[in-house]
Amino acid sequence: MNDDLFNLIERIANLLRQETRFEGQSLGLQPIQQEALYYLSTCNKYSDTTLAVTDFLGLTKGTVSQSLKILESKALIIREKDSNDKRITHLKVTEKGKAFLSTTCPPKKFTESVNELTNEQQNETAKFLSEILKNYQKSTGRTAFGVCINCKFNQRTSEGFLCGLTKETLTTEDTTLICREFV
Ligand code: SF4
User: Fold this and answer.
1) Quick one: which H or E segment has residue 123?
2) Ligand 1 in contact with 149 (CB < 6 A)?
3) 5-20: per-residue pLDDT in tens?
4) Whose CA is closest to 93, among 48, 32, 146, 47?
5) Pocket flag, ligand 1, residue 161 (CB < 6 Å)
6) Which of 42, 43, 44, 45 to mutate to test the pocket of ligand 1 (most atoms within 8 A of CB)?
7) What is the residue range of 103's domain?
8) What number does the ligand 1 atom closest to the CA of 150 have?
9) How many domains, the chain?
10) CA of 133 to the centre of ligand 1 (A)
11) Does residue 69 lie in a domain region?
12) Where are the extended beta strands (E) located within 17-123?
């Protein structure tokens, strides 16, 4: 293995964490709270529960619950009961939450740095990183939380998209979100 790869990815991840911490100061948010907020802005309706956030972040339920309470107290997320199953509570990002994420996630300086590459370079880099992520997920067995369109249950029908697992129709936007049931 090329050792530079690990060092570079680790360094970028570290810088992103530092920048994220800095960006979160405007709302008094800790990085973990921002990570939860960002996750909720990218996941689908099967994955926006406290349990799914806990699984995704790999933290204890207590820590995640505390972070979600803070996001709720700052009106960045709201809780909504599932229309079919009242036992399920969805966590939805509010307009205020979306506005915050639109200026901080990814951090502005990261976007500027990536934009110094050509579109072709950006696409190539995304392709290689995506391959590494896929291989890494496979070898660790942590294959959930993939993008819906790449899931084996995602079916294209004459009327649009269908989830073969839940038998529910999916919008085009749904297929771009991440899902804890992804296979
Ligand atoms: S097709 Fe797969 S990723 Fe998409 S909603 Fe269904 S289980 Fe989730």
Assistant:
1) helix 119-140
2) no
3) 999 999 999 999 888 8
4) 48
5) no
6) 44
7) 3-116
8) 3
9) 1
10) 19
11) yes
12) 77-81, 89-93
